[in-house]
Structure formats: structure tokens, C-alpha cells
Amino acid sequence: MIRTFQLRVSLKEESQEGILSTKAAKYLGVAEKDITVKVLRKSIDARKPSIYFNYKLEVYLREKPSEKPDYSFDYKDVSKAKEIHIIGFGPAGMWAALRCLELGFKPIVLERGKNVQERRRDIKAINQDHIVGEDSNYCYGEGGAGTYSDGKLYTRSIKRGDVRRIFESLVHHGATDQILIDAHPHIGTNKLPKIVENIRETILKFGGEIHFNTRVVDFTIQNNAIKAIQLQNGQEMPVTKVILATGHSARDIYYLLHKKEIALEAKSFAMGVRVEHPQHIIDSIQYHCSGERNELLPAASYSLVEQVKNRGVYSFCMCPGGFIVPAATSPGEVVVNGMSPSKRNNLFANSGIVVEINANEDLKKYEAHGVLKGLAFQKDLERLAFTAGGRTQTAPAQRLTDFVEGKLSNDLNPCSYQPGLKSVPLHSLLPKFIGSRLRGGFAAFGEKMKGYYTAEANVIGVESRTSSPVNIPRKENLEHPEISGLFPCGEGGGYAGGIVSAAMDGERCAEAACV
């Protein structure tokens, strides 16, 4: 017999070995020796000073659970199969390629950046030497932005595909099975590169192709169908089906499509700053504690949202125990993002705090740029941050309280951002419709989380790449409405917002293309 139910375990009980079996047996009124407990879901309830762990359990009475995973992946030898070309090898491109293997089609992946190991040198160059490689950085290269910027797997996009299937695929390629249990699963930037390598090896083993350092610079369109791809090295590749999975930072692709008069749409998005607190402050707020948090508790996170002047101001990509990283993709711009290692054991907690931008109402000054007005606005703000920071990857920053009160900071707090910070009046540099809302949002967040509004936190600019400001339209069959054979995909198309949703969209596009 199998029973499924939920149990609450106190923080004190959590430290006791075998507590789940003991409580489950008592709940069912049976002997502990007669049951086997399988954890399906685990979360923390820290809303009150008495902290509990919530477990969803599957309990087997006088039988053993199956050791087989919920999903099996039937990858086929596709070395001589029909080809599907995939541009980009981030989550959308990777899972599109894996799904092609299952469906019996040969994925040919074209990635502008380097493989995951070679990317390390270019990331080091950004952090230490302030040199931004245009094809290899925190955003471009094998695994995309997620590889070196955190690896959070939480998503609300359950209607877009099978979340569990993506998690099982990650476990199949080396991720810990803890991601199948945690309410907010996370892999970590220190572990993701090996998983990405394993996915690459699967694709190559079954006959797929992956071409690194291969930037697509043009498309050949005939009779409203995509016929060929031109590469930067001058090579032309004939194609019939193309999955466009280039990510939301590949601006050159948007410019190329626009130049060729292929339909695009301006899309609302969000921009702002990244705020960083000492982790112990967030722990003390969320866990109602003073001093160090209990060793059984992970670094605390938060999720905040406030309506300010008819626009949402909210936390984005919150990274407990993490780092702030330089996410620029071209020289002459400063962009910040956040990441966490698997243990989330750094001394700082950081999060994007961003403001909703309505493409139709908030960008009147950029109307001359048409559907690309959001891109133009992004670029202007990133260039402003670059200039304000001293024309390197040093980022402009301000103490949180000074930002809200409109004062230049005499000095700044210690920070995890390797290229360094420069004290700048961010409150006056940001456009008023963003800066004023951020100031209102921070003040409100300080009321919601007592201790959040503090001079011990830094505000760092700019957080500008939350999502694409451009949507590449597609029909119900996921094909572009004007260009047959072209399948816009993932974050770059405007159809995803993170690793898991991008992976699910990659699978859907592969299924649509492989017909």
C-alpha cells in the first residue's frame, strides 16, 4: 500500500535522525519497521518565530519504492537523420537539441561563444582586467547565461511544458536529485558547468553536431522561407528548419531581423538596480534570529513586490549567499547580474530590484527607434552606467539609504562585485520614472522587512537584462508568421524567463520543427 500525505517538522525535530519515518509511522498507526518513506517535496515555513519544515511524503507500507526515475530519455542515433539547425546553446538550445535526439532528428547547434571551460578565461578577463569579449562572456557561450549566473530552477511556467521532465533530464546529466524535492531548487554556478558538458556529450554521442565560435550574421530568405544561414567566417549553410534560441542579449539578431523587415514587436520589460545586503541581515529578518542562523537553515532569500505610481517594483533573481557579476556583452557598457554557488555560502545576499516598463507608455522619447525602442533605452542606460563608473567595468553604486534620501555616499560598503564600485549619485542618474519608483519601492520594502532598509546595503547599477524588450512573433505552430521554417524560441523570442521555462520552450520548438 502507498500513502501520500504532508508532515510538519519543527526545527528541533529536523536535527533528529529518522524523524520522518518516526512521525510517518505514528501518523499511520503502524510499526516504523514496516514502512519506507520517500520525500516528494520539501519547503520551509519561516513566517513565524517557530520555524517548520513542510514535507510531502510518499510512504510505502510493507513494500519498497521503485528505483526507476519517472522519466526515461530515449535518445536515438541521428548521425544520418534529417537536420534541424539550432542557433544558440543556452537552455532553450540545449533542450531543443536533446528533444531532437528523442524525435529522431539531427540537431546542428551553432553557438557564437566558446565551450564551458574556455569561457572561464573570458569571464576572468571581465572580472579582473575589465575586458569584455563580445562573443564570450557571462551571457554568451556553452550553456548560456545560466551556466555562470546562478542556476536557479524555480519557475511558475507550469503551463508551458513539463517541469518535472526538465528536472529529471538535469538529474540524468549529473545534477543532484535534491532538485526533484526542493520547493525552490537550485544547482549553483560551481556545479552547472559539468552538467552542461554532459549534455554536450550526449548530443555528440548520438550524432548531433555542436559548433562553437560560430556566429550567425545573416539569413537567406526566399519565397518567405528560410533557406540558408551565413556565418561570420563567410561559410553558408543550407537549412530547412531553424530554431532561433539566441537569448535576450543577442541584440545583433534583433537588428538583423529588423533590417530584413521580418516582423518584430516591442515588448514591455523591467529595469533597475541590484541591491546587496550582508547575508546575516536577511537571515535575521527572515528567520527571526540574532547572530548566526541555525545550521539546518539555508541562506535566507526574499521575494518583494510593491505598486508605485501604477508600476510594479519587485525583486528579481534573488541570490542568497551569492555574488554580483558583470554581465555586459559589449565594450562600453556596464550591466550587473547575480549568482550563487551551490552551497550559497558567500557573505552577501543580492537581488535585482526592478521597475516595470510599459513599452507603449514609458518610452515616448525613443519612438524613432520603432519596435527596437526598448533596446535603444537599454543601451543608453548601460552606457550611462559605464561612463559613471569610470569607463571600466567598475559599477556605479550608492548606499541604499543615500539612494532613497537623494544623497551622494561618502563611502560604500564591502561588496562581492569583483571589478569594484564607484560612489555615484545613482538616484539622479537613473531616469526619473525608474529612480523615483525604486526609491518608493525600497522605502516600502523597509516597512515589510524590518531591517531591510539600512545603510549597510549597497545599490549597484544597472540591472537591465531581466528579459527581452523585443518579441519575435510566432503562430500557434511556433513558427514565425511570415518566415516558414523559422522558430523563435526561449528568452530571446520573448517566450521564457529563466533556465526551466527556456528549456521547456526549447522542447516545444523542437517538437514543432521535427514534423
Brief characterization of the structure:
The protein is built from 14 helices and 22 strands.
Question: Helicity level, as a percent range?
Answer: 25-40%
Mean pLDDT score:
95
Largest sheet: 7 strands, mixed
Biggest sheet: strands side by side, in what order? 13-14-17-12-20-18-19
Structure, described:
It contains 14 helices and 22 strands. The model has no long low-confidence stretch (mean pLDDT 95). A seven-stranded mixed β-sheet has the order 13-14-17-12-20-18-19. Strands 6-5-4-10-22 form a five-stranded parallel β-sheet. It is an alpha+beta fold and 515 residues long. The longest helix is centred in the C-terminal third of the chain and has 17 residues.
What tags apply to this protein structure?
globular, 7-stranded mixed beta sheet, 5-stranded parallel beta sheet, 28% helix, 515 residues, alpha+beta, 14 helices
Topology:
Elements: E1 2-10, H1 11-14, H2 19-28, E2 35-45, E3 52-61, E4 83-87, H3 91-103, E5 106-110, H4 116-129, H5 163-172, H6 192-205, E6 209-211, E7 216-222, E8 225-231, E9 236-238, E10 242-244, H7 251-259, E11 265-266, E12 269-278, H8 279-287, E13 305-308, E14 311-319, E15 323-326, E16 336-339, E17 348-357, H9 373-388, E18 395-399, H10 400-405, E19 421-423, H11 426-429, H12 432-448, E20 458-463, E21 470-471, E22 486-488, H13 490-493, H14 499-513
Parallel strand pairs: 4-5, 4-10, 5-6, 10-22, 18-19
Antiparallel strand pairs: 1-3, 2-3, 7-8, 8-9, 11-21, 12-17, 12-20, 13-14, 14-17, 15-16, 18-20
Helix pairs in contact: 3-6, 3-14
